[in-house]
Design a protein that fits this description.
With 207 residues, the chain is mainly beta. It has one domain (23-206): Porin. It contains one helix and nine strands. It has one helix at residues 2-20; strands spanning 26-40, 51-63, 68-87, 90-110, 115-135, 138-143, 154-165, 170-179, 194-206. An eight-stranded antiparallel β-barrel has the order 1-2-3-4-5-7-8-9. The protein starts with a helix and ends with a strand. The model is unreliable at 11-20 (pLDDT under 50).
């Protein structure tokens, strides 16, 4: 009986020390701004402007030590590109919006009490694609059939970023992500072959 009581007390002490050192899993929510562009892989002369979108979702922090944690996330992320130029119809404005489900698996390194560095791989699944085109008085919008437009739905990439803690529960973040694989587009002006790259900024809250 004494041994059981001793083990129970030791267990409570261990849990208390574990909690005091913040080595407990935490969940949270995050959301913010995407600044998306592309790297065209088969035409260096192609240029695109930034396209603004939204990123947001859930975060899980799994601390391994005081300084290192595993941080998986599940995010909705708007990517794409904005291109302008001239044609026989006049100046045009072309925008392609790509809605992704992003699942980064990040290694978080706590460089200090207020700063965390994150880096790791990311899996992205293309949910939908939408285009907008305007040239003079002519405009159109179209939902693209991803199965028939030679677009890759499953893409692996990488993420690197920085978290700045405002307090124990709230932080601001900055991320840079890039695809390791191109979208396998057909290389036309409407579907160039490219890799997505995104700068993300936002606010996170741990519960």
């Amino acid at each position: 009986m004494k041994k059981i009581i001793t083990l129970v007390i030791a267990g409570f002490v261990s849990l208390s020390v574990f909690a005091q050192n913040d080595l407990v899993p935490r969940i949270g929510l995050k959301g913010g701004l995407n600044i998306a562009t592309i790297i065209k892989t088969n035409d260096n002369s192609f240029s695109s402007k930034a396209l603004f979108g939204f990123n947001g979702g859930a975060v899980l922090q799994l601390p391994l030590t005081k300084y290192i944690a595993i941080q998986p996330e599940v995010l909705f992320s708007q990517k794409g590109y904005h291109a302008t130029g001239s044609s026989i119809l006049g100046d045009y404005d072309y925008r392609r919006y790509l809605n992704f489900l992003d699942i980064p698996l990040l290694l978080r390194i706590n460089a200090s009490k207020d700063i965390g560095i994150v880096v790791g791989p990311q899996y992205s699944y293309l949910l939908s694609t939408h285009t907008k085109f305007k040239s003079g008085d002519a405009t159109y919008e179209q939902d693209v059939n991803n199965d028939n437009d030679n677009i890759t739905k499953n893409i692996f990439g990488g993420v690197v970023g920085l978290d700045i803690n405002l307090d124990r529960n709230v932080y601001i973040y900055g991320r840079y992500s890039i695809d390791f694989k191109s979208n396998n587009g057909d290389g036309t002006s409407t579907t160039p072959e490219y890799k997505n790259q995104v700068f993300q900024f936002g606010l996170g809250v741990l519960l």
